[in-house]
Amino acid sequence: MSHARNAKWALAILALGATSPLSAGCTPPERPYLPQSSAAMRAYADLLRADFETYLADAQAYFRCLDAERDRAFREAAQVTAQYGAFLDTLRKAPP
Prior knowledge:
Number of helices: 4
Helix content: over 70%
Shape: rod-shaped
Largest sheet: none
């Protein structure tokens, strides 16, 4: 397998494995509770509305966190891929 192909595989594997939300500390928001009865919905409308608005704001923050982690993971994978390429070059140039 060529150096370029090895580097591409290493980048792909690292990028896929490093995008886990758990690795970044991104925590998905908790879904808001919605009662089944319309009477309960009306009785607690202000609280429910606030819960939904909080959820939507938290979801946006979660998406930003995931985007930031994905960007970080790609930058890291590119650095590691470059290091791997240098490693392979060193091995290729070293006397047996």
